[in-house]
Structure formats: C-alpha cells, structure tokens
Design goal:
alpha+beta; Alpha-Beta Plaits; three-stranded antiparallel β-sheet; globular; binds flavin-adenine dinucleotide
Length: 380
C-alpha cells in the first residue's frame, strides 16, 4: 500500500479514489479521523488519472473578475433563520433548486454525529444540512452521485467548503445544471477529537447546535448539545479548540481558497462587520448572511431565491474577514496537541488547551485536592 507522503497536500475530497476505474485507491482515516488515499500498488497501472484529477494545490481557477456582487441577506421566515447559522441564505437558495425538481448536496450529521456529505430531494432531507458543523465532512461517493444526477438531466446545487466544491469542478465537465455554493471556511476540525468530545458524556445525543442563537445570540458563538434524556449542555469548549486552529486538517494551512477570488457560483458566509453598514440591522442578534455572487449562474439562483429573503447590496471593504484575505495560521502547538490527545485523551486536552473550560478545570482541581486530602487523612 502506498500512502500519501505530505498530508498538507491533500484535502480528503476522495476524487482520486472516485475516478480510479481499477478501484486501486481507498480512503483511510488517520488517528485524527482525517481521510487520506491509499494506493494498492498491485491494482494500480500508473495511468496518472488520480494526479490529474486532484484539484488541491493547483492554482484555483477563479471566475472572471469584475462581475462579483456582495449582499447582506436574511431569510424572512424566523424559524428558518433560527435554525441557520448565519442568515439562512442556504435554505432560500436550496429551496429555489428543490422547487424546480432539483437535487441538493450538503453536510449532515450521521447517526453517530460524525459529519458526512449527503443528497436531498426534499426540504426535510435538506434541513439536515442546515447549520455549520465545524468538523470535516466525509464526501463518501458524492462526486459520483452528482455525476449520475447530472447525467439524468437534473439540476444540482452542491454546497460545501471551497476545496470540496473545487474538487467537484475538476471531477466533472462543466455543465449548466451544476451550481456550486461554498461556505467561506477557516479550516475543518478533527473528526476523531469531535467523536471523543461527544462520547465523553455517555449520554445519547439528540441534536447539536454549533452556534446556539436561540439561547445566546448569533455573536456569542456558544455550542449546545441536546440529549435524548431531555437535558442539554452549553459551552464553548469544542468551539474554543476549533478557533485556536489546533486540531485542523494539515492542508488548511495551505488553503489556496482564502481570497476574494472565489471558485464557486456563490459564496455563503457570516456578515461580520454588519455594524459598519447599519448599526440597527442585526439589533435582534439573529444573524445575517454575506453572499458573494461570483457568476451568472449564481446570480440566476439568487434571483430565484431572493423573494424569500430581505437583502441589500453592501460594500465588501466594510465586511472583509480573514478567510477572504489570507490563509489561517495553524497553531504552532498542534503537533503537541495531537500527541497529547492520542496519549492522554480528550479530558486532558480540554483542560490543557481550552481556555473556556474553567468550570471543568475547577472541578478537576477540586477532585484532585479531595483525593489528596483523603489520602493524607487516611494515612495518618
Ligand atoms: C467548517 C466551516 C467553517 C466556516 N468558517 C466561516 C468563516 O470563517 N467565516 C464565515 O463568515 N463563515 C464561515 N462558515 C460559514 C457559515 O458558518 C455558514 O455556514 C454559512 O454562512 C451559511 O449559513 P446559512 O445561514 O446560509 O445556512 P446554514 O443552514 O447555517 O448552513 C448550512 C450550509 O453549511 C454547509 N455545511 C455545514 N457543515 C459543513 C461542513 N462540515 N463541511 C462543508 N459544508 C458544511 C451545509 O452543506 C450547508 O450548505 C463556515 C462554515 C463551516 C462549515
């Protein structure tokens, strides 16, 4: 088996495995849960197709300059807005495709709350894609499924990170029926750390909300996990590790998509900096989407969806954020974090690396002190 030598050169889209007619490539997860290709050299005939299809690291083909339009948008339906992480633009855009009998792809939670890409032909299935999940999603066989849908003449809206969208663009011949919508991204977190984090409580999970607007508002960025026994837990522990860029996929440090040159038809983001446009527009703290329309196809989709949203044109200079300007910096302690996670487990790394977990640090100190005090007293 041949393994990839430099992990920072692979975004895990799986296009190489999906294109290989000899089935010589399979995606295998490493200890952090990130998938990488492995080549079975006995099956491989060195045709080079896998390298040709690989989009990551090749200069992205941005769409022609000049035509971009920048908008702040918010879904008119309050329930939809509250279920969405930004302003609910994704629901409006995908509804327009579903209404035409089209198919929508996006990232959902699986039964075990891992994240995977999936296909929806109706609103109920599509609603599972709502909400940002900051863990890398597993693309499975999506690239081939999209190809199949397009072959059957269906309209497809594919949503995902820029690298996932670009992978699809390289995988398929260009077609009018495929619309690409990327979420602006500052990296994806380790699936293995996430699994360890949710399993440590031993309670069965019902739902996860990575930005619980209902209880804390849009700006606060607090996560809530809802359990089947009716209880829930809100914290910033996982989010805090995520924002530290300490458990990211290595390739995120080399992301070629962190600029205003977008590779998709439409880019969806949070409208951070809204107060420079209008101090009152987010007074209720329910959130706003920033939409960047990059192509005529993107504009057509926005026009079809626009009646579901309140929206206005905005000046991009007033709402530039890091992923639109430059790559993120991976935390210099990420290798140390990784080793600590693998050797000592989730509770240890949460205590050591997450600032937000003060309550659990206090609990830990209390337990340690009590144990020590008991030992001293019993020995007396
Ligand atoms: C990993 C990640 C990092 C992000 N970083 C930023 C950022 O730095 N700045 C910023 O402004 N916005 C960022 N976003 C985008 C933002 O959080 C919203 O997802 C986006 O604005 C769409 O919001 P919405 O209200 O329209 O729809 P929502 O319903 O909230 O969003 C759903 C969309 O997100 C996609 N999605 C959810 N999880 C994943 C995943 N793990 N992988 C791929 N696609 C996923 C779904 O397929 C769907 O298209 C990020 C999103 C993700 C998933």
């Amino acid at each position: 088996m041949l393994k990839i030598s430099d992990k920072s050169k692979c975004c895990g889209c799986g296009a190489c495995g999906q294109i290989c007619a000899r089935g010589a490539i399979s995606m295998r997860k490493d200890e952090l849960g990130f998938a990488y290709p492995e080549i079975n050299s006995e099956k491989c005939n060195d045709c080079g197709l896998c390298e040709k299809i690989c989009s990551f690291g090749k200069a992205p083909e941005a769409l022609p300059e000049g035509g971009q339009q920048y908008l702040a948008a918010r879904h008119k339906d309050n329930d939809t807005l509250m279920e969405s992480r930004s302003g609910g633009a994704f629901t409006a855009l995908s509804d327009a495709v579903l209404k035409e009998g089209g198919v929508v792809y996006g990232a959902e939670f699986a039964e075990d709350f891992s994240v995977r890409h999936s296909r929806a032909t109706g609103a109920d299935q599509r609603n599972r894609f709502r909400g940002s999940k900051y863990i890398q999603s597993d693309m499975g066989a999506c690239l081939r499924e999209v190809k199949q849908d397009l072959k059957q003449g269906k309209k497809v809206l594919f949503s995902g990170t820029s690298c996932q969208c670009d992978a699809l663009k390289h995988f398929l011949p260009s077609t009018d029926n495929l619309i690409l919508a990327d979420v602006l991204c500052h990296g994806v977190a380790s699936p293995a750390v996430w699994q360890a984090y949710i399993k440590k409580d031993k309670r069965e999970i019902k739902a996860v909300d990575f930005r619980d607007k209902k209880h804390f508002g849009w700006k606060e960025h607090k996560e809530t996990i809802y359990y089947k026994d009716g209880s829930s837990k809100s914290s910033k522990s996982f989010t805090d590790l995520y924002y530290k860029h300490i458990m990211h996929r290595p390739c995120c440090a080399e992301c070629p998509y962190n600029s205003l040159d977008r590779v998709t038809d439409i880019t969806m983001a949070d409208f951070w900096g809204w107060e420079k446009t209008d101090r009152e527009m987010n007074a209720d703290d329910k959130g706003y989407s920033l939409l960047i329309i990059n192509s005529d196809k993107g504009r057509e989709l926005f026009n079809a969806a626009s009646s579901d949203m309140e929206w206005r044109n905005v000046d991009i200079a007033s709402c530039m954020q890091r992923p639109l300007k430059s790559r993120i910096e991976i935390n210099p302690r990420c290798t140390e974090f990784e080793n600590a996670f693998l050797e000592k487990g989730i509770n240890y790394v949460l205590r050591k690396y997450s600032d937000r977990n003060i309550r659990s640090q206090m609990r830990y100190l209390y337990k340690k002190t009590r144990k020590l005090a008991r030992k001293i007293l019993l020995n007396k």
